[in-house]
From TrEMBL:
EC class of the enzyme, as a word: transferase
Major localization listed first in the record, in broad terms: membrane
Membrane-spanning residues: 191-211, 217-239, 513-537, 549-572
This protein's name: Beta-monoglucosyldiacylglycerol synthase
Domain Glycosyltransferase 2-like: 342-531
EC number(s) on file: 2.4.1.-
Extent of Polar residues compositional bias: 623-638
Transmembrane helix recorded as keyword: yes
A GO molecular-function descriptor: glycosyltransferase activity
Domain Type II secretion system protein GspE N-terminal: 82-164
Species assigned in the record: Octadecabacter ascidiaceicola
Segments for region (Disordered): 623-646
Keywords per UniProt: Glycosyltransferase, Membrane, Transferase, Transmembrane, Transmembrane helix
Domain of life per record: Bacteria
Length: 646
């Protein structure tokens, strides 16, 4: 519509003392535009309202009525006055894609299709996607024309036409200077062997001095960890309550949130997962849940094949590549995400119903430097057995005391693997997840801090399944500790640069979190050896430690145990599981499993650093504590089934 405005000259303002006030009050719009301009503006406004209403009708049909995608495409094409194209039956011209760039096609969800009579047809699922980049396309191709494709067909076309780019993004998205993909297993083996031989040689030549040095470092790591827990607990006790009740906003003002759920060999996951995520109160027309499957995972694919997914949930199949890890799958799926906020859930997660609303509200009110929000994790089977109880106590301490304490102290936060939410543009700028790192979450936490961003812990809980069998627990923990070691090695390639980017306070905090944690578990047997003295059994340091030093060591051990039990009791009380307090002293028998896992992880650094030890889900049914904290997820969890994967 051509819009013509007629104007008339404003009357000359009198030179009076209230001229400033007169100038501050603009003339009525009608007086400025004139009658012709008013009519034209009114017509334009009516057309704009009609266009918005048409789009609203399309969105309603698309998201509320559950109609086939072809119906959506027909509606969109009718509103735009264009046609529908199937890019699967008639593939796009690869030369046009190369000219525009596969990454830009994926980012803006437009596909240069064919050039006919000097005009290039551009495929998009919505008119808005096309209009956002129409000017750039016109500069590049000349005259362009829109055609509509269904979102599903467009995704399939992208996966085929942009395959090489997608594979590169999945495995090489993170910069080489911040990735562990260049990890040299042979060199790691040689260095590890040299260190072991050196330690053995020192223990042989100077047994008492060498043993004393190793014990001294172990005691220092224990003391540092105890001080960290103490500071975090004090900050927790004096922290102001933060209920974080989300503000209610109109649905059309809410951003689209994409939730990535990587699945691998999940036999009974489909129905239970849909039921759990359906409890979310976020508007489903603003929710984009992507179930990320591996191409060779017949188990999960068969489970989904007999399940009707809701319109807000879709499956993305990740092609085989040079490795198979969770972060690689996340990177691949990120290219197909529709939201401006990217979340990550695990297959067995049961998030709080208000969780997405809390995330959106927090991102809307916090500064742009907050790039990530980390939710708290808990277990719905916390009373399955002794191992589950201890794991629950440990998780409560980590997610309710330690991580919030790290945030309050301004230290680097190593992220958890689930209930994570990112600003998409920042996540993409940082290179997504390191596909080769088996603790991609902790690595990403450091990279966020190095680039000047912050992570906040939000007061919302996701229930998941505790890994409550001894050997699977050891395998899972060995993967975590192996990933911690790799992450520490990657970021300590250039210690001076890390110091400059983090600052002294966070640099030393990173040393304590990563080097301290790893060495504490590796050297734990040395500390246990002091129990020999209580039973009169000869100890390597007999006659070396003076009574005062031995008494100091004993005081540190006792104080560490008391503080550990106290902090754990505070944590489980905060989680509403006070009945677990009586189990906190048994953590002394629980953590030796982590020492075994540490040695397994160190061995794998030299043999299979990128191997992902899969954790099975659906083994344990939900349990109910005396406080009834687990009953809310009791109806939402899958029933136990045979082990699908290890």
């Amino acid at each position: 519509m051509a819009t013509i405005f007629s104007t008339r000259r404003q009357q000359k303002l009198p030179l009076t003392k209230d001229m400033a006030a007169r100038l501050a009050q603009p003339l009525p719009t009608g007086e400025v535009l004139g009658q012709d301009g008013v009519n034209a503006a009114s017509a334009l406004a009516r057309a704009d309202v009609a266009n918005r209403n048409s789009q609203a009708i399309g969105d309603t049909l698309r998201h509320r009525l559950g109609l086939p995608q072809t119906t959506f495409a027909q509606l969109e094409a009718g509103l735009s006055g264009t046609s529908i194209v199937d890019p699967i039956k008639t593939p796009a011209d690869p030369r046009l894609i190369a000219k525009f760039g596969a990454n830009l096609c994926l980012k803006h969800r437009v596909l240069p299709w064919r050039s006919v009579a000097g005009r290039v047809t551009i495929l998009a699922a919505t008119t808005q996607d096309f209009l956002r980049v129409r000017d750039a396309l016109t500069v590049l191709f000349g005259p362009v024309h829109l055609a509509i494709a269904t979102s599903e067909n467009l995704d399939i076309a992208f996966s085929r036409a942009c395959h090489n780019t997608l594979m590169e993004n999945a495995e090489m998205r993170t910069g080489s200077n911040e990735s562990c993909r260049d990890w040299n297993s042979g060199m790691a083996f040689r260095w590890g062997l040299a260190i072991v031989l050196t330690v053995l040689c020192c223990l042989t030549l100077w047994p008492q001095i060498s043993f004393l040095v190793l014990c001294g470092w172990a005691v220092f790591a224990l003391l540092a960890n105890t001080l960290l827990k103490t500071a975090a607990a004090i900050l927790h006790l004096f922290a102001r309550p933060d209920p974080q009740v989300p503000a209610r906003r109109p649905a059309d003002q809410l951003p689209i949130v994409t939730i990535l759920v990587p699945l691998f060999r999940e036999r009974d996951i489909a129905g239970a997962l849909i039921k759990r995520l359906s409890q979310l109160k976020y508007p489903t027309d603003r929710l984009d849940v992507c179930l990320v499957l591996e191409a060779d995972d017949a188990t999960t694919q068969e489970a989904l094949a007999v399940t009707q997914l809701p319109f807000w949930m879709r499956a993305i199949k990740v092609p085989l590549g040079t490795l198979q890890t969770k972060p690689r799958a996340l990177n691949y799926a990120l290219c197909f995400a529709k939201g401006s906020i990217i979340g990550v859930y695990d297959a067995e997660d049961a998030p709080d119903p208000d969780q997405i609303n809390i995330v959106v509200d927090r991102f809307a009110h916090c500064g742009p430097e907050v790039a990530c929000l980390q939710g708290r994790l808990d277990f719905y089977n916390s009373h399955s057995n002794w191992l589950a109880r201890c794991f629950t106590v440990e998780y409560a301490t980590w997610f309710r005391i330690v991580l919030p304490g790290l945030e309050r102290m301004g230290l680097v936060i190593p992220l958890g693997g689930t209930t994570l939410f990112f600003r998409r543009e920042i996540l993409e700028d940082l290179g997504g997840w390191d596909a080769h790192n088996v603790t991609e979450d902790a690595d990403l936490g450091i990279r966020l801090a190095r680039h000047g961003y912050r992570t906040e812990i939000i007061n919302t809980v996701t229930q998941e399944e505790a890994n409550a069998r001894a050997w699977p627990w050891v395998k899972q923990r060995s993967r975590w500790l192996k990933g911690y070691a790799i992450t520490y090695g990657v970021h300590m390639r250039n210690p001076l640069k890390l110091w400059k980017e983090l600052g002294a306070w966070r640099f030393f905090g990173t040393q304590m979190l990563f080097a301290g944690t790893i060495s504490q578990f590796l050297l734990a047997p040395l500390l246990w050896s002091f129990w020999l003295m209580l039973f009169g059994i000869p100890h390597p340091l007999d006659g070396v430690l003076s009574p005062s030093v031995a008494l100091t060591f004993a005081a540190i051990f006792l104080l560490s145990e008391i503080i550990g039990v106290t902090v754990s009791a505070i944590a489980v009380t905060s989680a509403g599981k006070r009945d677990l307090i009586k189990w906190t002293p048994t953590l002394h028998l629980y953590f030796p499993l982590a020492a075994l896992a540490a040695y397994k992880g160190v061995f794998e650094l030299a043999t299979k650093p990128f191997y992902w030890d899969k954790t099975s889900h659906g083994i344990f049914a939900p349990t109910q504590s005396k406080q009834g904290t687990d009953q809310t997820v009791n109806q939402l969890q899958p029933q136990p089934h045979p082990i699908a994967a290890e």
